[in-house]
Here is the input.
Amino acid sequence: MALVVQKFGGTSVGNADRIREVADHVRRCRDRGDQVVLVISAMGKETDELLALATAVSQTQPGREMDMLITAGERKACALVCMALHDLGVPADSLTGSQAGFITDTNHSNAKILEIVPHRVRAALDAGRVPVVAGAQGVSTDDDVTFLGRGGSDTTAVALAHTLNADACELYTDVSGVFTTDPRVCTDARKLLTISFDELLEMTAVGCPKPAMRSVEVAQNYGVKLHIRSAFTWEQGTWVAKEEPSMEQPIIRSVTPDTSEAKITIAGVADRPGVAAILFRELADAGVNVDMIVQNASERGITDISFTVPEGDIDMAERITRTVAEDIGATGVTADRAIARISLVGAGMKSHPGVAATMFETLSKHGINIEMISTSPIRISCVIRQDHADTATQALHQAFDLAQ
Amino acid sequence: MALVVQKFGGTSVGNADRIREVADHVRRCRDRGDQVVLVISAMGKETDELLALATAVSQTQPGREMDMLITAGERKACALVCMALHDLGVPADSLTGSQAGFITDTNHSNAKILEIVPHRVRAALDAGRVPVVAGAQGVSTDDDVTFLGRGGSDTTAVALAHTLNADACELYTDVSGVFTTDPRVCTDARKLLTISFDELLEMTAVGCPKPAMRSVEVAQNYGVKLHIRSAFTWEQGTWVAKEEPSMEQPIIRSVTPDTSEAKITIAGVADRPGVAAILFRELADAGVNVDMIVQNASERGITDISFTVPEGDIDMAERITRTVAEDIGATGVTADRAIARISLVGAGMKSHPGVAATMFETLSKHGINIEMISTSPIRISCVIRQDHADTATQALHQAFDLAQ
Here is the structure.
């Protein structure tokens, strides 16, 4: 008998039919002898709708109240899933983040879990019932409702799986696993049966939409076995586990395109210590999530700095950068939304120095100019024009034989 | 400086504009020097939408899960009202039923308040902030989320006003007060400036839609000063207070029409002790809310029993009545949805025996047949054909000079 934490959200519970299908899946798992703990996030686009409502009502949107608002979505979905389980004769109890024992810090809208005290989850399991936990929420040390942030339900599921010492944590989505690239761009994209935490982390960091990066970090830290799979086909998905050094590693696991970032360049910056620090401290204080940062080699003591930010942050980032540019006497600031970042990820890359060269050659062969480059031990990312994104993805997927 | 509990819900907070208007009203009240505690119920038709979702998902609809689902509506509205207040520079904190200290029994979907421990409400007031309490909800003695039932936010407001020893409890609605009759039926319906608890209770019991009857009972029991008023025009509404025996009482305060009930008649019942008890015990056990019961005088040891139930309960009531009819050897059961109940309410009626006669004469003069009659010390209700409801209401409103 295995203990499995299963997480469902979004389109997986997007309407009444879907909720009943999820309930039926849980019933089948229990019939096979598994113990199931569910973590549920909001239905369909509900979180977006709640955010739109907040925008319509308020300009200040205080964090405490935003969290009270947003967490209502998870509670609704939780209660509905429980009802569907009851209909199938499966006893189930919905639990809010607070009832499930998620104690967090007081950092509203992006709270961190401090401790999980899952008495009521365990009590439900011991009574042969299915605990159905509202995702992405908890109660703060000030006794206020807190939200863990977008994608926080994945983190709820992983952290709970660790605390309960579960055999696996299954994250159900609308795709059937982790692919070698976006199947909408490359028809021959291939589902990976296994992937290492390091690889999946890099992929989620550069635009792979699921699962939420933070949940992968938590799973890696605590060694929680993750299974990314489909809530529509119910087929086996992708298992995420520790990298096994002995196994023959493919060089490249995936090509991950991402068109959700924008680029800012600040030109004519004096190349002396502390200048970059001023800029990126201002951006951090404003909550702008800076991703790639590239500073070109300096000539005559003058350099350019380029960095990428999520498209939604570009206006604020540009405003801040212009202010800083004046203060430090830079010569100009440009903002550019029409970029794409294409990344290659693979643990085998570490011992294969030729990967970067092949990537650059492939892009060059297709007439695609590279504007920024950044690398990690197991990833290479290039920023290119956005209208070249599909061509680049397809070319790289083929160049590295990922369809095989 | 007065302490006022103000309750808003439904259309009053039906969209972003309305929420901002409510916030602005609260700001004005505070600028005048009042301390304000808000009780908020769900936006617009949200509760109906949540119920429809539950119906789409589940047939069993377990009470614990229904309460988790439904209470999400109030939390959303609460958080949004707080945000709008923050925008106007009014510090405010949303509080769930649990956070506001509403301890209830475990009777899901219709929980009763056992105790209110409003530490956080008082702390917010002491800090010069507006506590914004989610209506119609609490936490049970089993630590589960509970819902007080439809209209429960009025009860939350009144009970909180009592506990805080507030100077008044204002129930804001989409009408500007309590009227002598339905203004949609009689154009000369007149708003009452004051009304007694007894009168308002009778009116809400026979179909006056607002406020919720239970809240009037609580207000009466604890002597909470109620003000029923408009969230759209903000004008003075109707004050509800203890009847003052010395004041010159108008005989009739209102004509209250109600077309939401249906009638069942069980015919040919043996007129012996215990027969009615069997029937109404079965109906009560099924949760059918029986209202008027009329048993005709018996001839030859055989009688007919008629009773009214909410239209939504008519199918279940008919089924149960047919089963009982067979058991007790009654000759037939008829169900009739096309009825209306017209009620006259007025504390002065007690000392004016001619009211019933005038009512019956007025109906007769308009060719309206009376099918059932029931009375209380301050109310007379007649069941008539539904298509006569408007005529009867207008005729009675005129006969008793209520437009003056």
Notes: The two ends of chain A are 36 Å apart (CA to CA). Chain A has a mean pLDDT of 91. The first strand of chain A starts at residue 3 and ends at 10. Residues 51 and 57 of chain A are 10 Å apart (CA to CA).
